[in-house]
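Hey, can you fold this one?
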Amino acid sequence: MQKIFTRYGFTLIFQLLLIMFLVQLGNELAGGRLRIFGIYPRDITSLPFIFTAPFIHGSWLHFANNAVGFLIFSSLCLIKGKRFYGKASLLIIALGGLGVWAFGRPAIHLGASGWIFGLWSLTITLAWFERSVVNFLVSLLVILAYGGMIFGVLPTHPGVSFEGHAFGALAGIVAASTFGRRYRKWRWR
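Sure. Predicted structure:
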């Protein structure tokens, strides 16, 4: 069991979740003052915060909801390897964050939701870019179990950054097309 966790990098997921937990704890102790490190659209001073915003959450409930999705979709992506996960995550955070920064509503956008939506769309679209039976089955499982997440890209709640969800999901598709190997035929692996 120890080998599985270190080989596939699952300890990385728990380390990232621990960082998010500690940042949330610090944010609570600071009275929510860490929110200034979120993304404020079209404000040049908040551009570097594209890389800090995914680690800051508005509340413990926000953190808990994101932690579950983060655990599930990070695990699915880590099966492809730590390097793949790292490159895809960095691209999703950067592109998704830039999308929110350029086109988001004037509010502070924070939380790992964009990253999670990116990992979600990555697991689904890899079936197209890497045409293997395993990718197809994972994609089908994700669609059946979490297909309802597609509604998260719609502006349904005023306090929810649907822009983060939408641009994260688009960035996940870009990551799948960038890092997924393209096959012309279906392969059994």
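The chain has one domain: 2-179. Let me know if you want another pass with a different chain boundary.
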